Amino acid sequence: MKMFGILTLCMLVGAAGYGQALDLKHLDRLADKASEKVDVTLDGSLLKIAAKFLSADDPDEAKVKKLVSELKGIYVKTFEFEKEGEYTESDISSIRKQLESGWSRIVSVQSKKDGENAEIYLKTGSADGGLAILCAGAKQLTVVNIVGKIDLDQLSELGGNMGVPKIEMEKPKPPKKDD
């Protein structure tokens, strides 16, 4: 989703969060209806194994390896459908219900033109925090939950690795000084 890039850019202003996985099992029933699906489930032990394959000699891989060492899990579920209406508002509301207690919605984007809605939630200030991204379009539903100590400034480094979509973004240019 193109809004995912916008949301990721917005996330890069944050601080750190600590992890708690969301319960996304109820979404598994959507797999039969989807024309394409992505289901990434990497718990702490799998992340440690995956991190061993990242080179400490390659600067980009070293950044990802450091970031992953602080994580307890990465969970991504994406469903793409041939037609609208293959998932219901109750599928989304059950996720939002989990995010009502102690989570802060830090970004909300709604597009009437594209019919896409996206939200980013953060839970900070306690040991059971986390990060959740919910993107819902007419024919697509994506939920990302990253669990563990995360530095949102470094989160874009995870893109393209371990099931997290790669987002190409330009970093904001510093303001010009008036001479």
Topology:
Elements: H1 2-11, E1 16-17, E2 36-43, H2 44-52, H3 59-69, E3 71-80, H4 89-98, E4 104-111, E5 116-123, E6 130-136, E7 140-148, E8 150-151
Antiparallel strand pairs: 1-8, 2-3, 3-7, 4-5, 5-6, 6-7
* Integer-rounded radius of gyration: 17 Å
User: How many domains, as an integer?
Assistant: 1
Number of helices: 4
- The total strand number stands at 8
How would you describe what is shown here?
This protein has 179 residues and is an alpha+beta fold. It has one domain (2-158). The protein is built from four helices and eight strands. It has helices at 2-11, 44-52, 59-69, 89-98; strands at residues 16-17, 36-43, 71-80, 104-111, 116-123, 130-136, 140-148, 150-151. A hairpin with a 3-residue loop joins strand 6 and strand 7 (140-148).
Task: Give keywords.
six-stranded antiparallel beta sheet; 8 strands; 30% strand; 179 residues; 22% helix; alpha+beta; globular; 4 helices
